[in-house]
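Bug report

Summary: structure tokens for Oxygen tolerance protein BatD differ between web form and batch submission.
Environment: batch mode, default settings.
Steps: 1) Submit the sequence below via batch. 2) Compare with the web form result.

Sequence submitted:
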Amino acid sequence: MKSIKNIVIVFLVLATSIASAQVKFEAKVSKKKLGINERLRIDFEMNEDGDNFVPPSFANFDVVGGPNTSVSNYSRNGKRSYSKTYSYFLAPKSRGNFTIKQATIEIDGETYKTFPITVNVTAAVSAPNENATASEVASENIHLVAEVSKASPYLNEAITVVYKLYVSKDTGVSSWREKDTPRFNDFWSQNIDVKGFTVHTGEYNGEEYRYVILRKTVLYPQKTGALKLEPLVMEVTVEVPSNRRDVFGRVLLTRVPKMVTAGSRTINVKALPEEGKPSDFKGAVGNFDFKVLTSKTQLNATESLQAKIEVSGSGNLKLFELPKLTVPSSLEVYEPEHQENVRTNLSGMQGNISDTYTIVPQYRGKYPVPTISFSYFDLKTESYKRISSDDIVIDVLEGPMAANATTENAADTTKQTVNTSATTFAFIKTNSNWTSIKSEPFFKSTGFWSLLLVPFLAIPLAIIVRRKKDERDADVQGNRIRKADRLAKKYLSEAKKALGQKESFYLALEKALHNYLKAKLTIETSDFNKEKIESLLIERQVSKEVVSDFISILENCELARYTPITQVTMQNDYDKAANTISLIDKQLR
């Protein structure tokens, strides 16, 4: 008997644990009987996060508020508790018995539905919603909205997200703070400073509201397909009118803490068309001008001139490479100096970028610079355009001739008659003034023996140098380390120059990390996301610790735009980036 009792207890415990682990998705209403002049609140609650939430049609009601989303996620006594709720506020259209149909949601690949709920709408009541709580009033009268300028942009086309907090006239807000900030992982993002929170008047769901603009962000999608925008979650203290009054008859306000969210949005990013795509297309999207300028076209050998390749206009200026300059081999060309003069507003990036090359001719002659072309995708015409530079000829006036050059006018030389006279060679001396020179014979002198012995002394030195070189070449690990260190310095040189300037430094650091990945993993910028980077690096036998450091640096670059950063933090991020790039290059297989 005792064993049967124990079995029953074990069975009940297992059943309870299984039930507690089940997914719950249910609908709750504030009341099932209400007057036609009252409002109904309906909550759709779940204990696991899901996607593709589809509410019922609410055919017999007007939606006057919502959807408002609230999330609760905490741990107590070692047990995790999660709850997510979508709330709507409904006004009945007429009297009668109405059924609110099922809502659906997908959780872990499974579709869940709520049970239908029947509501009885009666004649108008004298005190509508007299039992409504302050929290319900607050939820009905405050809304956080994310307004997206374009839901279906092209790859690398600028879109804007403006976050607005709408508050009804009878409700106030005393304070707010961001609880969870979206990171925009699949986008290049730039926050636009909001100077002061000016109160505007506008409409929300057909009713007059006041609103403030909390945040403005410019996004450039870096991959195609359906990209999700993470929601902005804020904690707001709402001031709701109560039924109490002070001694002067003024309505007293009740402060209610409320969590509001803009909800997640999906952006469907279109790929750039393949038809008509130029072979030299580098990913430029927007409206641009292109030109190639030289500081001068005539100079002497060993003098220098500057050739600037410049793109100006509006578009993704920081997200593509400029065409390269090609010149004849007789002209010595140095690595270009890259400059960016770009400002970002709600229309996207505007300004210009340029590469300036220093050119030094070595020989006299005329050197044509080949035409340079720049291709971009024009968003207005939705077609590709190409701009080509004018022909440039560099004329080197004075200097030595190249070894294979011929004298320009040799074939045109004409003979002339030479007239001689008695004084023609008068300047030549005909009398000598010789003096005797006595010196020690060179043979067996100190200089003679020195020159004779130097080659023999150089032989052992050459042997030592050769051995050292062989040892260095054989040191595979050491060569890999030295190569990795040089590579890290190469990619991080621009970031190092910008140390102390937060925006410039982190933009340069992020670009360096992306360029390094493009060079080492041969993947395009449009394919970048943290999961793919992590999987590719691990496949190439990079340790998880190094991969984690690399991902954390990328996250720091994103977060640094929104938070104050000190010089010490920037230096630490730079050192960490250099060390991580070096470690990745050593471990890559």
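Above is the batch result. After comparison, the two runs are identical; trailing whitespace caused the diff. DSSP finds nine helices and 30 strands in the chain. The longest helix spans residues 446-474.
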